[in-house]
Amino acid sequence: MYFVLFSVLACLSTCHCFTGNDENHCGLLKRLLESSRVSVEINKKGFHREAVTTVELSPDVLSGVRVLLVHRWPRGVYLDPYQLASLSVESDWQILLDSAIDLELPAHKTSGFVTYVYPTVDGPTPRLLKVTIPVHGRYHKPSYDGKTFTSVDIEAPELLLRTEKCTQLSIFEPHAVVDAPCTADNSSACSWVKLQHQQEQGAVGLQFPVGDGSLVTPVCGGTLLVTMISCVALSKYLWKHRLV
Amino acid sequence: MERLISGLTGKYVIFTAAFAIRLALVAYGDYQDRTMVVKYTDIDYHVFTDAARFITEGESPYNRSTYRYTPLLAWMLTPNIHLSMMFGKILFIVCDVLSGLLIYRILRLRGLNSETARHVCALWLLNPLPMGVSSRGNAESILAALVLGTLLCMEARHLIWAAVLYGLSVHMKIYPITYALPIALALRTTRSEDIKRWRWRSFIGFMGSFLNRELLLFASVAGGVFCMLTALFYYMYGWEFLHETYLYHLTRRDIRHNFSPYFYMLYLTADSRWSQWLGLAAFLPQLILLLVASWAFHSDLPFCCFLHTAVFVSFNKVCTSQYFLWYLCLLPLIIPHLSLSVKQGVGLLILWFTGQGIWLGPAYFWSLKATTPSC
């Protein structure tokens, strides 16, 4: 009888432990969501830039928490999948693209795309994460209103968090719960909690130069004139000095 | 000084030295790739290697995006996967030095003595541009070797070999097709009467002069090699092979990294309804000059081919820096026969470099800094 009583008590205490731990992990996640920050800045100039995403996780024990950054890229830029593949070998993050990217199309013939970046795949998540992704500008249509630059806006990525040990994701209102791939090999989908976007960082604007569409007639005329004149002059000269 | 130059360009010294320098550059390139951020190896080499990897896995090389070459190249580079990544670069530098050897043989056949021929060969063998291009992993040297091989065989009148090499070179890149007309004019039966007045009879006679044994042999062997390779790869890889290897290049309107005089015109009119007509208008000067050059200089085949390539590259709708190698490999063949003075030659060279500088300067600012230079 004492044995039965002892086993029942042991069972109850372990059940209490489990629920207690679950609450601890969910509480940790909630605290992370409240005080984490994510921002993006664009380095370098020209058509070949770098997007540096910085994630600050609030100072707490972070074991078991996985981070996912979801970038929604506009059509004016592209990422080179081959460059990313060789980079992710050297660095500790992995990236998943949602669609095939054509490297050569101009901006108006493509659409935006989404990338999923998994920082620090192995090992514990550090408090400060920095992920650098090379970004390239696409060629844009010439402008007809005199502007020599076109603007492309890059928004800060969405920060998604999850931990294996917290399963009651409904308690994280108002932070939304979304489905996203668990890992970069896209073999399964998991539920993640999305950090509510802070308003302090808006989109970062990139400027890319464009041609002047109003010059179409002089450019075409001038080019064809020069090439025709060169053709005639060279033909005359070649014919004059021909070998019989 | 004379003895030093003579010693340096001794027959085997120059070829060995050229190969050794290129090998050293390949080794340095490997070191730079491993240690520095800016890579030595060209992106094209990675494209070739990725395509070769697809072939070793039994798939089409065209699964690699931006692979726009013949499958033969990817097949040749499969040892990159099985043996070492360096294999392709070693192959390219061997073809580079082989091109130098072919230049030497052609010059000797055209009557130059051994020493002068070696000095002229040094223009290719010790030239940093082909050295850099081959050691970085571009496949242009293979085509240079094929074209020079064709010219050597034509010079030595080994027509079947010339035809085989010509068919192979056209398969690898389209531009040698322009040599068809001067080759045909060179091989036709030359008649003693001069065509002073165009009459129907002389016109028919002119057309008839193309129907001789040598020309028909050349045309059938070259055509046969080309068609056989095309049929084989079409059977293996389908429509994608035809599109990526040939049709893409014929309709290519590259609005990025382009030296062509038409680049801005094509960029501004890319989506307009006049685009096709403008493309055709851009093609006319090229065509006219090719026809005139063929007729004027077909009796000197290397010179004619050089002019053809220079015209083709300069008046093409797309021109990247690799294209310059296409006529650079033929330049040593014609230099001994030019009547330009050294001063004129150097002046023209400075003009060429100035043109490059005027083009590349603003291009650098545009691409890497995204600023339009204030004129």
From TrEMBL, chain B:
Pathway recorded for this protein: Glycolipid biosynthesis; glycosylphosphatidylinositol-anchor biosynthesis
Q: What protein family does this chain belong to?
A: Belongs to the PIGM family.
Q: How does it sit in the membrane?
A: Multi-pass membrane protein
Q: Could you say which residues form the signal peptide?
A: none
Name the InterPro entries for this protein. Answer: PIG-M
One Gene Ontology term from the biological process aspect of the record: GPI anchor biosynthetic process
Which Gene Ontology molecular function entries are recorded, alphabetically?
alpha-1,4-mannosyltransferase activity; GPI mannosyltransferase activity
The EC number on file is 2.4.1.-
Primary location: endoplasmic reticulum
Q: What is this protein called?
A: GPI alpha-1,4-mannosyltransferase I, catalytic subunit
Name the domain of life: Eukaryota
Which compartment or compartments is the protein found in? Endoplasmic reticulum membrane
Q: Which GO terms describe its cellular component?
A: endoplasmic reticulum membrane; glycosylphosphatidylinositol-mannosyltransferase I complex
Name the Pfam families on file: Mannosyl_trans (PF05007)
What are the entry keywords? Answer: Endoplasmic reticulum, Glycosyltransferase, GPI-anchor biosynthesis, Membrane, Transferase, Transmembrane, Transmembrane helix
Transmembrane spans: 12-29, 81-104, 215-237, 274-297, 346-366
- Its job: Catalytic subunit of the glycosylphosphatidylinositol-mannosyltransferase I complex which catalyzes the transfer of the first mannose, via an alpha-1,4 bond from a dolichol-phosphate-mannose (Dol-P-Man) to the glucosaminyl acyl phosphatidylinositol (GlcN-(acyl)PI) intermediate to generate alpha-D-Man-(1->4)-alpha-D-GlcN-(1->6)-(1-radyl,2-acyl-sn-glycero-3-phospho)-2-acyl-inositol and participates in the sixth step of the glycosylphosphatidylinositol-anchor biosynthesis.
